[in-house]
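Practice problem. Given the sequence and the SMILES for SUD, write out the predicted structure.
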Amino acid sequence: MLFNKPMDKTLTLTANAKINLTLDVLAKRTDGYHEVAMIMQSIDLADRLTFREQPSGIAMQTNVAGLPVDRRNLAYQAAELVKSTFQIKTGIHIELNKEIPLSAGLAGGSADAAGVLTGLNSWWKLGLTLDELCDLGAVLGSDVPFCLHGGTMLATGRGELLTPVAAMPPCYIVLAKPAASVSTAWVYRNYRPGAVEVHPDTAAMLAFLRQADLAGVAGKLANVLESVTIARHPEIGQLKAWMVQCGAMASLMSGSGPTVFGLAADREEAESIAAKLRNLSNAQIIVAKTVGGMRGENAAKIITN
Ligand SMILES: C[C@@](CO)(OP(=O)(O)O)[C@H](O)COP(=O)(O)OP(=O)(O)OC[C@H]1O[C@@H](n2ccc(N)nc2=O)[C@H](O)[C@@H]1O
Ligand SMILES: Nc1ncnc2c1ncn2[C@@H]1O[C@H](COP(=O)(O)OP(=O)(O)O)[C@@H](O)[C@H]1O
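Answer key:
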């Protein structure tokens, strides 16, 4: 017998990765965090989240073997937070397709958490504003509010206080993710101001962004956490040098690492850099581009309903 089965209701959205154009650590706080000033940029490398109905509880599945699909997953934590805060009795099934490398300094977990907050706000018709979503997101991780906003932002406090800034001139980003695995908490714990050679000039970077001067932006990339992560994993320094030798305008480690990114003005240049790097290095090489113009909207973009 043939049944006309009604289509299951689903919601799918993408959750973008980020890079840090600048990252300065200003002070150690008493709450275990560090005061930072960083300029963050969304890129089109993205995970995909699909939501489906289920009678009760939270169930997750993912394409990455070994990535927990329980309370240890930030996406699961985000769903649990929404469910408990708004006393929601119905369940949710979350399918997470990861494209963003794990523990890479690209905010993959934070992007997923932001995607779940955005998705469930729509799924359960909660009507939360972006600011309200950010208040929830900040509980899950310092980078989650940025992932909710996306675009180009100055992040201060522990990273959760956001100021919109002039959008980065559109360009291509070559990512090189070496095998090394670093923990963000370990990197901050081992940060020593005395070991830093160059602090970012945040004001100068903001000026180049305002002038839409990509060469100026390239010249001002700086991240003080390199002093910790590269000391432990010198191959990251090697990758930075190779990135520039292969033609990138400039290179930098993103966040706490270990991913290195390089800037390229167009796709052809980016693909050429990526091809040369693949010959030199065992790192995972990905070509991405900047994502802008979404300020005021959620970076996690709903693509089907
Ligand atoms: C370094 C950055 C730069 O964008 O990104 P990633 O490398 O993780 O992508 C961020 O500051 C990471 O933000 P996020 O990954 O959300 O960190 P959280 O979960 O809030 O914190 C993880 C741990 O890092 C330390 N931490 C984090 C943020 C901060 N401003 N000061 C800190 O000292 C704390 O020890 C904290 O327990
Ligand atoms: N949805 C998720 N995606 C990736 N990692 C996650 C997720 N949920 C929890 N984690 C854990 O968070 C840690 C940091 O991962 P990730 O967010 O990818 O890196 P980073 O903070 O360097 O950008 C990893 O140890 C990983 O096991």
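Check your answer against the key. Residues 1-6, 293-298 have pLDDT under 50 and may be disordered.
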